[in-house]
Specification:
This protein has about 525 residues and is an alpha/beta fold. Helix content is about 55%, strand content about 10%. It contains 21 helices and ten strands. Helix 1 links the parallel strand 1 and strand 2.
């Protein structure tokens, strides 16, 4: 079993790291701590722990000096730097020393730490002479591409900005003159798979296997890769300076397809790939990364492979797609599941590829959430049915989103079928109430509020159960009672109109004539003569 030393001047941070990480799961059974770098150094000399996690800014001895002293004692020491913010200069110095990774405290979870801990087990030794371990270099490259790390002062200088003035180290292995191609591989619907697939019970282990496959595919090329992060990996490939643009483009497509094929064959996972359509220089890599990384979070076909620009244009051409949510709600409330399934087919499988990201998100959230809220407000569903455990952010493919939306509709249909059967028994109680309170305000709003029922659902339920709208039912009940009073009492027309809920006698007379074809007085007279 192994040990870890946590060095941080904030007690709550040390306690949080000890309690929030399941250390024994990763083979660490002894957790030690120190509140500054000097004490941490003394503890390391005494304990020689297998892993060190240290803050950057601390009193007495800061994290950089601490790491320096530790690495003097043991060049193979495994160190992860943690900080409350991204301090570029400190990060540069830490990676230069040879630390394994740099993590922000407020973002750090066991899920983030797990891939590092697993890969640390595979690291036999760290490189010497001030360079990086493989894991450290991959993490460094991702930070640099993402813009969370700067190595030099001028970010536009292809030489000075990418290399340390002291060591000449760059976050990549190729020259500034090379034609470079960027490729991104993403595990389709990564969040959904990680949450639901038994194959991904240990995500860090699966990602480590995926990284090994990617490295094997790229072994014959001059290339650098980032570590897997949130289901995606970036590769930078150098084709030299003699390759034409068309040749570089064709090679990027072939390599992306090979990566996809091998990952699917070895791990049984669906992956998509994007590659930048033109060769770029080292100085242009961060911009390419930002563009492709943003595109990866948008929806595409499962297993999609293509250039970045084509995918982006596809997204921007479909700004006119709209969904009539009112019609969808009515069809669901009426139980017309076949219609809904057909519309889902049209929406996700045909309209979807032409819709932009905001429209897709609107469709999913509005349709599914509105359905759910309608039923819940109508007292048909319990407050938690597990329907919203997932959201649109869990999906990156049209197929995945389509499959989940179908499950949502089927789930709602099953819930509503039982709920409607139960709720229909309320209709009779509503009818009895109406017949006993015809003189009161029986508007749909008033009844829904009195009975704590959703008015839209109440209207639909009446129409299904009785064959007419709620308003029609109330009016006919009032007219039937008015006919009884006209024939069985000596009440005046004004009194009868009030008895059946009409404060305006003239409006009562108009309504009565509409339903019977004659005035109340004529109806009474004919009834008396019959």
């Amino acid at each position: 079993m192994k040990s870890v030393l946590i060095v941080d001047d904030e007690a709550f941070v040390r306690a949080g790291l000890k309690e929030s990480i399941d250390w024994p799961k990763f083979g660490y059974d002894h957790i030690y701590e120190a509140d500054n770098g000097l004490k941490g150094l003394q503890e390391y000399k005494r304990l020689r722990t297998d892993l060190i996690m240290t803050d950057i800014r601390m009193p007495i001895m800061d994290g950089i000096d601490f790491c320096t002293e530790i690495l003097k004692l043991n060049r193979n020491a495994k160190i992860i730097v943690i900080s409350s913010f991204m301090d570029f200069e400190y990060v540069r110095q830490a990676f230069k020393l040879g630390v394994m990774d740099y993590l922000l405290k407020h973002q750090m979870t066991e899920q983030q730490l797990a891939p590092i801990l697993l890969r640390l087990e595979e690291e036999e030794e760290q490189e010497r002479d001030g360079s990086f371990s493989k894991l450290g270099k991959q993490a460094y490259l991702r930070h640099w591409l993402a813009g969370t790390l700067h190595v030099g002062a001028n970010s536009h200088d292809p030489h000075g900005s990418h290399a340390s003035p002291n060591t000449g180290f760059r976050p990549y292995s190729f020259s500034a003159e090379d034609h470079l191609q960027m490729i991104a591989i993403q595990i389709d619907d990564y969040k959904w798979i990680k949450k639901n697939s038994s194959l991904w019970a240990n995500p860090a282990e699966r990602e480590a296997r995926a990284a090994t496959v990617a490295e094997e595919v790229l072994a014959s090329y001059q290339s650098d890769i980032t570590e897997w992060h949130e289901g995606s990996l970036f590769a930078i490939i150098s084709f030299g300076s003699r390759l034409s643009r068309s040749e570089a483009y064709a090679n990027a497509a072939q390599i992306t397809q090979k990566l996809q094929r091998e990952l699917q064959r070895e791990l049984g996972i669906a992956v998509s790939g994007l590659y930048y359509p033109l060769p770029v220089t080292a100085a242009e890599l961060p911009e390419c990364y930002c563009r492709i990384n943003a595109e990866l979070g948008r929806f595409h076909r499962r297993g999609y492979i293509g250039p970045y620009e084509t995918e982006r244009r596809q997204k921007s051409d479909g700004n006119s797609q709209r969904v009539d949510l009112g019609e969808w709600k009515n069809k669901l409330l009426q139980g017309q599941l076949a219609w809904l399934m057909n519309e889902l087919d049209i929406l996700w499988l045909h309209k979807g590829p032409g819709m932009n990201e905001s429209e897709i998100r609107m469709c999913f959230r509005e349709i599914i959430n509105t359905f759910y809220n309608e039923f819940q407000v109508g007292s048909l569903l319990a407050s938690s049915e597990g329907l919203m455990d997932l959201s649109v952010e869990h999906f990156t493919t049209f197929e995945g989103l389509y499959e989940w939306s179908v499950l949502c509709v089927e789930h709602l249909r099953r819930l509503s079928a039982g709920a409607v059967k139960k709720a229909s028994s309320k209709i009779r109680s509503f009818q009895l109430y109406i017949e006993a309170h015809l003189h009161e305000d029986l508007s749909l709003d008033a009844m829904a509020e009195k009975m704590h029922f959703n008015k839209i659902y109440l209207s639909e339920l009446f129409k299904q159960a009785v064959g007419m709208t709620y308003t029609q039912y109330v009016t006919e009940a009032r007219m039937a009672h008015a006919r009884r009073l006209l024939t069985q009492s000596a009440l005046s027309i004004q009194e009868i109109s009030e008895q059946v809920g009409f404060n305006d006698a003239a409006y009562f007379i108009k309504t009565f004539r509409k339903y019977t074809g004659q005035s109340p007085l004529k109806f009474r007279k004919q009834s008396a003569e019959a």
